[in-house]
Amino acid sequence: MSNETASQDPFSKNPLNGQTNHSSNDYDDQDDLFVSAYPEDSNKPIAPVEDLMNTIDLNDDLSESPAPVSSNIDSSVNVASSPDSSPVLISTPPPKSLPATIPVLSNTNTQPALYSFSPDSNESITGPASSLQSSTNKPTPTINTASQIQITVSEPHKIGEGMVSYMVYTVTTKTTLPYFRRQSLSVDRRFSDFLGLHEKLQAKHAHLGRIVPPPPSKSVVGTAMMKFSKQDEQSSSTEFLSKRRFALERYLQRNAEHPIICADPDFREFLELEANLPRSTSTSALSGASVKRMFGYFNETVSKMTYKMDETDTWFEQKQTWIEQLDGQLRKLYSSVESLIHHRKELTVATAQLAKSTAILGNCEEHNSLSCALSQLASTHEKVEKIYEKQANNDFQYMAELLKEYISLIGSVRGVFHERVKAFQNLSTLEQNLSRKREQKTRLELAMKHDRIPPIEEEIRDLDNKVEKAKEDFETISANIKQEFERFDINRIRDFKQNFIRYMESLLETQESLVECWESFLPESKSIAV
Question: Where's it found, cell-wise (predicted)?
Fold first, then answer.
């Protein structure tokens, strides 16, 4: 689907107020962010539909062939053309399945194409079969799913009271992807369901080198404020709920943009299953799983500090250095934007106080024209206060959240780099064990202890197979990381471009509104009688 279609998505909404946006500045009409994903022979002529239909025997019993006709044609027919004739169909044998593993590219500077996986690959892309998935409509990873699915999170409402209360969010999905049951879906999910979804996706995809988007972080203060606020006092937690709703929506949409994660059965179940999901107890801060996870993080940190991988691929060295630099710069910019938002909110409060004081002064003034001017000035300051408040929200929406999201994503990128180090460490350990066993066999042969050699040979064969499997895993995760990193870089540039344009538009709108306010007040000040 083209980027032009994506930019005119009728489902696009403002993340804070839920209103539909119709911005035409998100993409240029000629932009193409996924050039490397197109096949090289995409310009070859395609046979007309009439010619394709003429090749089909209408006397065949189609009921015995569950596969669609188009898929048979694609796998067994090539199109050739000549200068003096229309395209000709040439019958060829069906292509063989691609291997499950992806070899490491000999040229490390060559960027691999995005997601050229074979559906017949031995590597499971979608995991175990789901009850929601039809056997004749299996999900196949596509190059770009962002323009085919739109997810919104809305209507946060409180269930229960006190410590046992929790917030439920309505997740609405609109999609044209074929492996979803319906084009429009709506389910209710609590915050722990989002955390449980991330744990499942992380366990299935991170060790393969795929960047799994992180969920919004927990907020103890915000959660406590939400739990103990009454129905008539929930305005104090409105800002917290608005920010969390927006963060959850971005989290789901970022997962949906990933062509493999979007087809994952757990992700589709999260969007489709109307019943409540089984509660994920491991997401609790005081659960045994969380304590175990904390010790796991500690062990990984120690492993990162004590184990040094001898890197042979300069691509990974360059990207890891670049990621560290990008992380530092994003954190500095995020700190500056947070400070800007804080001062903008202080300016909003100060402007409101100024409007109130000016109104009081106008009521005390005996001079009629001056009193009217002061009242009008107070009204103008109230309008300016609303403008400042709106701009503070835009600062958060278009800048702060984007920076915070990418700081978290960089943490996931670091995670997949560490998974590659773990794969290399496992390979090195197996190779060392294999070398020791071979040395042990040599010593036994020299000592003429032939009765002890067969068990050693069996262990050597077993270790040899494990080493080959570990090599394949290491090559696979290395190739996957390069694909994921290319996709991460493309999305980063796209997201920053979109948000910068929207942010500049919001600043321009703010300044225009301020000019209108003060221009409308100017005649009042000139009409004061002296």
Answer: Cytoplasm; Golgi apparatus; Membrane
Residue 351 has pLDDT above 80, yes or no: yes
**Residue 470's closest CA among 433, 418, 428?**
428
Q: pLDDT tens digits for 9-61?
A: 444 444 444 444 444 444 454 444 444 444 444 444 444 444 434 444 434 44
Q: Of the candidates 182, 157, 183, 188, which has an alpha carbon nearest to the alpha carbon of residue 170?
A: 188
Please answer whether residues 344 and 392 qualify as being in contact, where contact means their C-beta atoms are separated by less than 8 angstroms.
yes
Write out the two tokens for 276. Answer: 């409540």
Helix (H, G, I), strand (E, B) or coil at 155: strand
Tokens representing 355? 């409007």
229: which 2 tokens?
């606020």
Name the pTM for this structure: 0.68
Burial of 446 (0-12, 13-18, 19+ CB in 10 A): exposed
Query: Residue 481: in which H helix or E strand, if any?
Result: helix 453-526
With H, G, I as helix, E, B as strand and everything else as coil, classify residue 152. Answer: strand
The full set of domain ranges for the chain reads 43-113, 368-526
CA distance 265 to 275: 16
Cα 168 to Cα 112, 226, 239, 506: the distances in Å are 41, 12, 16, 31
- Compute how many other C-beta atoms are within 10 angstroms of the C-beta atom of residue 46: 11
For residue 20, report the phi and psi dihedrals to the nearest 5 degrees: -75, 135
* φ/ψ (deg, to 5) at 190: -95, 170
The DSSP 8-state label assigned to residue 159 in this structure reads E
Architecture of domain 368-526: Up-down Bundle (1.20)
Query: Over the range 403-421, which residues count as b (16 or more CB within 10 Å of their CB) and which as e?
Result: bbbbbbbbebbebbbbbbb
d(C-alpha 493, C-alpha 501), whole Å: 12
Q: Which two tokens stand for residue 424?
A: 């290399």
Distances (CA, A) of 254 to 151, 249, 478: 10, 9, 23
Cα–Cα distance for residue pair 369/352, rounded to 1 Å: 23
